[in-house]
Design a protein that fits this description.
7 strands; alpha+beta; 37% helix; 7-stranded mixed sheet; 5 helices; 141 residues; Aspartate Aminotransferase, domain 1; 27% strand
C-alpha cells in the first residue's frame, strides 16, 4: 500500500501536546495496519480535513482524528455523521466505546484502546462504500 502524507498532516501531528500526540500516533498506526490488511486499498492519503488529520481511501469514508484543548484529557476518532458508521459501532460494540453522538468515538488519554474492536471500526470506515449495504458493515465481533 502506498501512503501519501501531506506536510500539513505531519505539522498538525507535531503540534499536539504529549500524551495526546502519542495516542494519536498509536491510532494512526492502527489505521495503517488495518489498511494494509484490506487487499482493495492500494493508496491512502493522509491530509487535513476540517483542520484535522484525516485518512482518505477510494471506496471509503473519510476517517479523522483530533485532540481539542477544550477537552484536554481525550482524543477522538471522527466519522461522517450522516453515515451508519457510529450507529453500527454502538450496536455491535455497545459500551465498549465512549461515543459523541453519531460522529465520534472518544478515548481518554489514560485509558487503553480496545485495539481489535477499533480496527473493525477502521476497516468498516475505510471500506464503507463497499459494505454500507451490509447490516453490520462487515464488522465481525
Amino acid at each position: 500500500m502506498q501512503v501519501s502524507t501531506s506536510p500539513e498532516f505531519k505539522s498538525k501531528l507535531n503540534q499536539y501536546p504529549e500524551p495526546a500526540k502519542s495516542k494519536l500516533e498509536y491510532i494512526r498506526a492502527l489505521v495503517h495496519s488495518t489498511a494494509e490488511e484490506v487487499e482493495s486499498i492500494q493508496v491512502m492519503e493522509e491530509t487535513l480535513k476540517w483542520g484535522e488529520p484525516s485518512f482518505v481511501v477510494k471506496k471509503g469514508s473519510t476517517l479523522r482524528m483530533d485532540w481539542k484543548a477544550k477537552k484536554p484529557d481525550q482524543v477522538a476518532v471522527y466519522f461522517k455523521c450522516t453515515s451508519r458508521l457510529v450507529e453500527t459501532f454502538q450496536t455491535e460494540f455497545g459500551d465498549l466505546f465512549q461515543y459523541e453522538g453519531t460522529r465520534a468515538i472518544v478515548f481518554d488519554l489514560s485509558a487503553a484502546i480496545p485495539e481489535q474492536a477499533l480496527k473493525e471500526c477502521i476497516k468498516a470506515t475505510l471500506t464503507y462504500h463497499k459494505v454500507k449495504q451490509l447490516p453490520t458493515l462487515g464488522i465481525q465481533v
